[in-house]
């Protein structure tokens, strides 16, 4: 199982604390003020075991039902980028900032690559990566599920992160998709892959295919 670790800072009205996020690419797990949390994305932080939460511990956070609200996260998120012309690989840590208000979520991503600064703000990872992909102006691609030729989203929408489907087992059929109707005829897949995951079968997304298309 692939696992990554991200260092970051959690901030709310009670102060700021360092955190380390463990990502097994199905769940994010971490501790805040010695309390264990688990989540599938960054806008739905819930207690790993609510039965162990004391009243004093609960009062250290702001809640909406069982999930945290009114917090900020700053995370050193690793990214891998491919330069299309010569296939050079760049690996580095980007700055991901997440803010959860009462009901509204926002995210900001920025990094420097080859002396050029890139930044984006949106409510989900697809929007963040779409904005930066346009800024690349055809020079680079993300080396992850978002940047893979065989990854796509559900026609019924998606979560903030982790809603990509993998079509590598039906490559020829997927590459023939030109519209939503074609897409709906493909064999069903689970839409549960994180945009930032990358497997050994990654193929650079360099064709206008699928439901989501490709940003040139």
From TrEMBL:
Record-linked Pfam families: DUF6304
Superkingdom in the source lineage: Bacteria
Protein name: DUF6304 family protein
